[in-house]
Amino acid sequence: MIRDWTQKGWPQFTYDAAQTAPYKNRFLSSSGEVFGAVCHFTDEERDLLRIELLTDEAVKTSEIEGEMLDCLSVQSSCRIHFLRRTVAPDPTHFHSWDFVV
Fold it and tell me: Scanning 6, 14, 33, 72, which has the fewest C-beta atoms within 10 Å of its C-beta?
């Protein structure tokens, strides 16, 4: 893997806007769809989604660094720090990270 800081011209970042435009447009379109759907969520559903996304991101980022985090522990920390309350995990709700080995 080539590290960013080893590439010629680092740290000046340049890119071709025309080349990235299709990706940007697809992202913006998908973001609009997600935003439209989330508008219909209750506050509790939004909180649960935020916690799930934050937990998933934390676990995946740690895996990149070679560290395996306990998903329930990360989720509990996210709930405490971002929602400023503790909520017991719902054993009937399955998350994507429940199956990470």
Answer: 14
Contact of 71 with 97, CB cutoff 8 Å: yes
Distance of CA 48 to the CA centre of its chain: 13
| Whole-angstrom distance, CA of residue 14 vs CA of residue 19 | 12
Residues 41-54 have a mean pLDDT of: 87
Classify the phi-psi angles of 48: left when phi > 0, otherwise alpha if psi is within -120 to 50, otherwise beta.
alpha
| Distance of alpha carbon 30 from alpha carbon 32, whole angstroms | 5
CA dist list (Å): 67 to 7, 54, 61, 70, 95: 27, 17, 9, 10, 20
Q: Which residues contact 46 (CB under 8 A, 6 or more apart)?
A: 38
Long-range contact pairs involving 47-52 (C-beta distance under 8 Å, separation at least 24): 47/83, 50/82, 51/75, 51/78, 51/79, 51/82, 51/83, 52/95, 52/96
pLDDT at 9 over 90: no
